[in-house]
Specification:
Elements lengths: L5 E3 L5 E4 L4 E5 L6 H17 L4 E6 L3 E6 L6 H15 L8 E10 L7 H8 L3 H9 L2 E7 L6 E4 L14 E4 L3 E5 L2 E4 L4 E3 L2 E5 L20 E6 L2 H12 L7 E4 L5
Parallel strand pairs: 6-14
Antiparallel strand pairs: 1-2, 2-3, 3-5, 4-5, 6-13, 6-15, 7-8, 7-14, 9-12, 10-11, 10-13
Length: 255
């Protein structure tokens, strides 16, 4: 069957064939909470149904790739099942509500060597940059780039700052950065060109943990400023497995 063939021709969602073991359900062509919320709703529905033959779900900003075992389930049976569950998932769409995780961050020139760049580019004070970065809730659209790297939306545009001209070869895990209108956390040591403004003592990715990532698509993230002393305390608690992750419920966004 031709890759990319549209199996259902309607506005949204569109269901496309992507080979002999994958279908892609598209909910739109724009980055928005509404579109991604429906992607995550279908993901939750498929996970809860424990569909036989389903191998993996890969959400993106606008679509969900559903991988299945063609030897375990016939495509002609699998496709109408996915179509039906996509309709059911609409009832699981929760809009801008949902669960959130609080990430403690030490904003400082020690952990955020580019904090001065953001201050200079925005024309704001250090206190105001930190306040604007930590005073909003960020929506995690998806994970990618490196294990556990969250693509976050919702940053205050007044602190948007271009990427570094020369990326660093190694950025420490836990570093919080800004790149243009985006912000994010490096979950593992990796190269990168984002402007680093702080660091969290949490282990954002741990292959021995279940689940291995602290964030996921559909979750909200709130950054909580902490002092260097609290950073050291939390780091020690994390190393001994004694830290309890703070969660919160995200209600309706005030009008």
């Amino acid at each position: 069957m031709e890759v990319g063939l549209v199996l259902i021709e309607k506005q949204w969602p569109k269901i496309r064939c992507a080979g002999d073991s994958c279908v892609v359900i598209e909910y739109g062509d724009a980055i928005s909470l509404d579109v991604n919320g429906r992607v995550q709703a279908l993901r939750r529905t498929l996970e809860s149904k424990k569909v036989s033959g389903l191998r993996e779900l890969v959400p993106t900003y606008c679509s969900l790739a559903v991988y299945f075992d063609p030897l375990a389930i016939d495509f002609l049976r699998f496709f109408p099942l996915i179509n039906r569950l996509a309709s059911e998932a609409e009832s699981d769409f929760i809009g801008e509500k949902g669960r959130g995780v609080i990430i403690p961050v030490c904003y400082s020139f020690e952990f955020g060597p580019d904090l001065q760049n953001v201050i200079h580019h925005s024309g704001l004070s250090e206190e105001e940059v930190i306040k604007r970065h930590s005073s909003v809730d960020y929506y995690c659209y998806m994970l990618g780039f490196t294990p556990g790297f969250s693509y976050l939306g919702g940053m205050d545009e007044s602190i948007s700052t271009p990427r570094l001209v020369e990326p660093r070869e190694k950025i420490p895990a836990g570093s919080v950065g800004i790149a243009g209108r985006q912000t994010g956390i490096y979950p593992i040591d990796s190269p990168g060109g984002w402007q680093l403004i702080g660091r969290t003592p949490l282990r954002m990715f741990d292959a021995t943990r279940e689940p291995p990532t602290l964030t996921d698509g559909g979750l909200w993230i709130r950054f909580r400023p902490i002092s260097p002393n609290e950073y050291a305390l939390i780091e020690e608690q994390v190393s001994h497995g004694e830290y309890t992750l703070e969660m919160f419920d995200k209600g309706e966004v005030p009008a």
